[in-house]
């Protein structure tokens, strides 16, 4: 299906691997001109600009690069994110600040410095890659879960403040097969059992698997298109049915 995105200009943060890479793959298929903002060089061919999204000066330089090269910014996909494990008393202040700076401040800065261009154009879309941990929380992810909850507040605020010209939508995904998920599996069971652990996690999902980055890419492309023109200020869940599942085997009342 042609979503009408050909020739539009999108910035994807954290696009060098994982979910961001999957999003870029699908957007390129739709003819989108994509720029990857990341601290890590991509291992594939893409217009890349090195940006640490937690740093204002780097964000501004990156956005100026895109505008000078393409003349516009049609969409921002705030995907860059980091994670660490720990309950509140186990989380260092440094880890807390790092996660908030990348996951929340990064999305704020990208929106802050791209919105003026979108306003001039009279149109734009911002997608924040949140998580089902924006709604429900597992153990020992205090900083990460807090950051993903915060993204929902940012999403709603942007939507209310800038509609109807600019839409803002969050994507709340379940477990997606990425280097970050593999890192989490390795921390639990060791490198030699990563595949077994990811398969085990997938069996919890009604769909019987974890997601893949292209799943998020197809949803992102749809949300960027005019077919989604009445979707704003909300979180679209893509989790293989996980949050619909009552996690007990006995009858629930």
UniProtKB/TrEMBL annotation:
Keywords of the record: Oxidoreductase
Top-rank taxon: Archaea
Transmembrane segments: none
Presence of keyword Oxidoreductase: yes
InterPro entries linked to this entry: NAD(P)-bd_dom_sf, Sc_DH/Rdtase_CS, SDR_DHRS6-like, SDR_fam
A Gene Ontology molecular function term of the record: oxidoreductase activity
Keyword Glycoprotein: no
Family: Belongs to the short-chain dehydrogenases/reductases (SDR) family.
Name this polypeptide is given: Aldose dehydrogenase
Species this chain originates from: Acidianus brierleyi
